[in-house]
Each structure stands twice: as structure tokens, then as C-alpha cells.
């Protein structure tokens, strides 16, 4: 593991790419290098995880028995959290190794009886029944094909129970920002997502920020060109400078945030508690 992370491949084959990530990092410590910033140091990925956790926290207060679908569940970090709060959780991911690791972690945390993990492509999601909460964390930003993206949002909407809530955390800057785009990632402008959600009959009930500190997005496009010792020092400095800003102001500095949390509901549905 180094300060530069793993390079994006020239050709993006999603099932191959995510399985490779899982085999490299899913069982390594917390597994965050597989599901946050690919192969980056633990201190950096823990900062990402806690920024996400703080941003999602208001929307993950569930009642026991809540039916949850965690799409792109990775190693199960959100699935096990919600199962620990009494949710009945289905986690879906493209990678068999991610799913195997999620099952292992659910057993270690004694929530395996309230979790079920399946290998499925979100664009072709097909599960019996519906869900009170559908959660996706940095999933849509890796679906590059427009038709697959539209299909993924439609399949999630089709699985949302009346009055249910969809909570999606994605890279969604308020203005066009392509400098961090790679062959596996798109930072789509926020309005692109809002239009797509409206097209599928989803109503925006709330939107909040995650990480308004700009330092990461300034550094990351240039990181691989830096000598390793200097790159590690720069990354540590960026993490140190970003953390207090993101932790204190992430939720309220919505317009300046690189990521956004979208809280959605089907048009005409009753508000979910």
C-alpha cells in the first residue's frame, strides 16, 4: 500500500475491476482500501469513512425490522451497522470476493442472522419484495455507461417500498469538475443526478454535504507524479487539513461539498420516519 493508490486501468471492465480490488484489499484490516480510495493508506481511507459516516448518520436511524437494501455493499460496513440496529439487511455487490468478506464480517459481528448477501449487478437488480430503506454509497459514480446508470436508478426505484427512503452518497460537485475523472470514476455535476432521479419519479426530500474541504481534489490528480516520500507527506498534510473542516462543516456546506447525500422518496409516498 502506498501514497499513490492503485492506478485506474486503461479499460474498465466493472466485474473484473471490482473483483481485483476485493482480492487485493477486502480482507486487509478494515477493508477500506477496497471500498473507499483504492489502495490508499489506512489513515486517508479512515478519514473518508468517517466523513461518510457523519453525513449518513441522520438518515440511518432505523427501527428494528426495517427492510434494508445496501447496494454496492462491498465488505459490508454499512450492512453490518444497520443489522446491528435491528435491520433486516440484504447486501448486493458485483464482486463475489466482496460478498464473501461481507458474510465473514457479519458473522464476526454476530449479525449474520439479520443479513443476506448476494452477487448482483445493480443495473439488473432483481430481488423479491421491496425495501423500506435503500442505501448506496459511492456506487453510481462508478457506473459510466449512461444506459446502465439509468437502469440502476430504475431498478432501485422499483424495489423501494411505498413511503420508503433511498439514501445515496455520490461524488456530485455543484459545478462541472472533470479533473479527478478516470476510466473508473465520474464526478457528475449534481444537477445530472437530480434530473435522473426526477426522471425516475423520485422526490428529493433532503440534500446534505460530506466533504467541502478542497484540498483532496487539488492534490489527487497530481499525486502519482510526485516522488513517493513527498507524496506521502503531501497526502498526510491534506488529510490533516481536511479533517476538521469536513467533520465540522461537511453537512451544512452543501454547495462547496465534493460529495453529496441525496435523500429520496417516490413521488406521492408518505414520509418515512
Plain-language structure description:
With 273 residues, this protein is of the alpha/beta class. The chain has helices spanning 14-25, 32-35, 42-56, 77-84, 96-108, 146-158, 190-199, 215-223, 228-249, and strands at 67-71, 88-93, 115-119, 131-137, 160-171, 202-209, 259-266. Helix 3 (42-56) packs parallel to helix 9 (228-249) and helix 8 runs antiparallel to helix 9 (228-249). It is globular and about 50 Å long.
Determine Rg (CA atoms, Å): 18 Å
Query: How would you write the strand order of the largest sheet?
Result: 3-2-1-4-5-7-6
Oligomer designation: single chain
Mean pLDDT rating: 93
Share in β-strands: 15-25%
**What count of structural domains?**
1
Care to count the β-strands?
7
Helix share bin: 25-40%
Low-confidence stretches: none
Which descriptor suits the 3D outline? Answer: globular
Largest sheet: 7 strands, mixed
Describe the secondary-structure layout:
Blueprint: H1 14-25, H2 32-35, H3 42-56, E1 67-71, H4 77-84, E2 88-93, H5 96-108, E3 115-119, E4 131-137, H6 146-158, E5 160-171, H7 190-199, E6 202-209, H8 215-223, H9 228-249, E7 259-266
Parallel strand pairs: 1-2, 1-4, 2-3, 4-5
Antiparallel strand pairs: 5-7, 6-7
Helix pairs in contact: 3-9, 8-9
Amino acid at each position: 500500500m502506498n501514497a499513490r493508490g492503485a492506478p485506474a486501468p486503461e479499460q474498465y471492465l466493472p466485474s473484473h475491476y471490482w473483483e481485483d480490488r476485493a482480492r487485493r484489499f477486502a480482507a486487509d484490516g478494515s477493508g477500506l482500501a477496497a471500498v473507499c480510495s483504492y489502495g490508499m493508506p489506512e489513515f486517508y481511507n479512515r478519514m473518508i469513512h468517517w466523513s461518510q459516516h457523519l453525513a449518513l448518520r441522520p438518515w440511518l436511524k432505523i427501527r428494528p425490522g426495517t427492510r434494508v437494501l445496501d447496494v454496492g455493499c462491498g465488505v459490508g460496513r454499512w450492512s453490518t451497522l444497520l443489522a446491528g440496529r435491528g435491520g433486516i439487511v440484504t447486501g448486493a455487490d458485483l464482486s463475489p470476493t466482496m460478498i464473501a468478506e461481507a458474510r465473514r464480517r457479519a458473522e464476526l459481528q454476530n449479525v449474520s442472522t439479520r443479513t443476506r448477501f448476494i452477487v448482483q449487478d445493480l443495473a439488473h437488480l432483481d430481488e423479491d419484495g421491496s425495501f423500506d430503506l435503500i442505501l448506496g454509497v459511492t456506487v453510481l459514480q462508478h457506473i459510466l455507461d449512461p444506459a446502465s446508470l439509468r437502469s440502476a436508478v430504475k431498478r432501485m426505484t422499483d424495489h423501494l417500498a411505498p413511503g420508503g427512503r433511498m439514501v445515496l452518497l455520490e461524488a456530485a460537485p455543484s459545478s462541472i469538475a472533470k479533473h479527478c475523472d478516470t476510466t473508473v470514476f465520474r464526478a457528475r455535476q449534481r444537477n445530472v443526478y437530480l434530473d435522473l432521479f426526477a426522471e425516475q419519479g423520485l422526490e428529493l426530500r433532503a440534500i446534505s454535504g460530506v466533504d467541502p474541504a478542497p484540498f483532496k481534489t487539488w492534490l489527487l490528480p497530481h499525486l502519482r507524479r510526485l516522488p513517493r516520500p513527498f507524496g506521502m507527506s503531501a497526502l498526510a498534510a491534506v488529510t490533516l487539513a481536511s479533517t476538521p473542516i469536513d467533520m465540522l462543516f461537511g453537512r451544512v456546506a452543501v454547495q462547496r461539498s465534493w460529495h453529496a447525500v441525496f435523500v429520496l422518496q417516490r413521488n406521492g409516498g408518505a414520509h418515512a420516519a
